[in-house]
């Protein structure tokens, strides 16, 4: 076996189309565009949708808990939550027992968005061209990659 077969050249390794990071990045851009189109009728952005998903799963969460779920720090998350509160989708309140902790809960308007958003996951599955089991395997592989990279 030639060295070339087992060890790609530097030129080959540095090709854009050979980069896992670029494949993930460009797929993410495409996915965000599709989500943007799907979320526009609801009047929410993709990051707002993610926050809503977390709160629809379990309402009444701390900002730090939401940040942990979404892999966002509070400096990124707080302005997002403030905009969502101003839009009337959620409410933020400091704990009386510990004012460092801010709790977030859905408003009635935020809860009502859930029924409008229920169609979005299946729309995205159809747009992907993948079968549901393929989506599950891809999601599992990507989560495994993320977890490995964060170690």
Give an account of the 3D structure.
Pfam families: Staph_reg_Sar_Rot (PF22381). This is MarR family transcriptional regulator. It is found in: Cytoplasm. Residues 17-147 form the HTH marR-type domain. Its main location: cytoplasm. A hairpin with a 7-residue loop joins strand 2 (90-94) and strand 3 (102-106). The chain has nine helices and three strands. It is mainly α. It has a domain at 44-113: Arc Repressor Mutant, subunit A (Orthogonal Bundle). The longest helix has 20 residues, at 20-39. The protein has a three-stranded antiparallel sheet.
Oligomer class? single chain
Order of helices and strands: HHHHEHHEEHHH
- In CATH terms, the superfamily of the domain at 44-113 is Winged helix-like DNA-binding domain superfamily/Winged helix DNA-binding domain
Distance between the termini: 35 Å
Number of helices: 9
CATH fold-level name of the domain at 44-113: Arc Repressor Mutant, subunit A
What structural class do the secondary elements suggest?
mainly alpha
User: What is the average of the pLDDT values?
Assistant: 93
Shape: globular
> In CATH, what is the class of the domain at 44-113?
Mainly Alpha
Layout: helices, strands, pairs:
Elements: H1 3-6, H2 10-13, H3 20-39, H4 46-57, E1 61-62, H5 63-70, H6 74-86, E2 90-94, E3 102-106, H7 108-117, H8 120-128, H9 132-150
Antiparallel strand pairs: 1-3, 2-3
């Amino acid at each position: 076996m030639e060295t070339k077969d087992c060890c790609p050249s530097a030129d080959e390794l540095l090709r854009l189309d050979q980069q896992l990071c670029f494949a993930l990045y460009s797929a993410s851009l495409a996915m965000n565009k599709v989500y943007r189109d799907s979320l526009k009728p609801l009047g929410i952005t993709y990051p707002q949708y993610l926050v809503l998903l977390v709160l629809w799963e379990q309402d009444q969460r701390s900002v730090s808990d939401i940040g942990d779920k979404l892999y966002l720090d509070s400096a990124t998350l707080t302005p997002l939550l403030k905009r969502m509160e101003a839009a009337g989708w959620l409410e933020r309140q400091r704990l009386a027992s510990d004012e460092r902790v801010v709790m977030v809960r859905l408003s009635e308007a935020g809860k009502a968005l859930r029924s409008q958003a229920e169609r979005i996951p299946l729309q995205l599955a159809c747009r992907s061209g993948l079968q549901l089991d393929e989506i599950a395997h891809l999601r599992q592989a990507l989560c495994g990659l993320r977890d490995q990279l964060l170690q």
